[in-house]
Amino acid sequence: MSTTIRDVARLAGVSVSTVSLVLNDKPNVAPETRSRVLDAIRKLNYHPSSIAQRFATSRTNTIGLYAFISGDKPYGGFYMPVIQGMIEASREYGYSFQIDIKGEDRGGSSSSRAEVLAEVARQRKVDGLLILSHWPLRWEDVGELVQRKFPFVIVGQDMSIFDVNSVLVDQVKGAFEATSHLIRRGHTRIAHITGPAGQHEAEARLEGYRRALEGAGLPVDEGLIFRGDFHKASARECMRRILDLPDPPTAVFVANDNMCLGAMQVIRDRGLSIPGDIAIVGFDDIEAAAYTSPALTTVRQPLFDLGEQAADVLYKAILGDSNSVARIVLEPELVVRESS
Fold this sequence. Notes:
Layout: H1 5-12, H2 16-23, H3 31-44, H4 50-56, E1 62-68, H5 73-76, H6 80-92, E2 96-101, H7 110-123, E3 128-133, H8 139-147, E4 152-155, E5 166-169, H9 171-184, E6 190-194, H10 200-215, E7 225-227, H11 232-243, E8 251-254, H12 257-269, E9 279-281, E10 298-300, H13 303-319, E11 327-330, E12 333-335
Parallel strand pairs: 1-2, 1-3, 3-4, 4-5, 5-11, 6-7, 6-8, 8-9
Antiparallel strand pairs: 10-12
Helix pairs in contact: 1-2, 1-3, 6-13, 7-8, 9-10, 11-12
């Protein structure tokens, strides 16, 4: 494994940002500290890549986040821990952090995304980009970034097939575990309230639900799959339809916690008990999940870690510390509470 800037920082007993200052020959480093860093560089035989050295003189010491997401609370608020992780990692590296939220609904325009990102690469007002999108990204969105060798990381989606750095959470596994938990509780008719059609996380969670049923030898009943949109109102409507079925299911896996809150309201309004009459499991582990009545069983995503690791991958890409494409998949965690 090749030596990285973090190895140098560790040996010298300084921060990564201090090593970066020495590499870029900046003046604001104490002489004894500079000496320790240079000594560590020699001992480890560390050589920054030619690409990193070429860009060193024109660096802005700023990382950019471009988020193609809706500003709606279920979406915008959900991403805050991710952004916090990015900011913390950026501080560690001595980088400023610039956020640009591009509101986008129902898939957005790939051409507009491509234009925005290409302009960033041309202007080079930031040293690298973290890219979040509520809807699936395509090659044409990021192609010019790749061609210009502009450092960037896709957050929350897997684009490693295109040799693009990606950091994400295993959504399929999380949904598989949620559904399998209900199966282990003895449920054989399990409904699913999905997220919006075409939204990558919603489709991955639907896939995990299907795999769990198939793996347990249970039929996948399309009549038990109801299309929501991550908002409470859609879940309330779906839950009414579920309870009105001639043979209602005994459990439901809901694609996010926000919709769970709406679904649980309908169950209570019908005079039914949770989990006695119908069990319910969500996804995300939002703050309210622990305080619902009953407390909600859900899938926790390591959102802060997602942002932090994405920024870490980006920093290595900026410095040329890695010659390979990163694909980091974080594990979700089933949190069992009283609703199941």
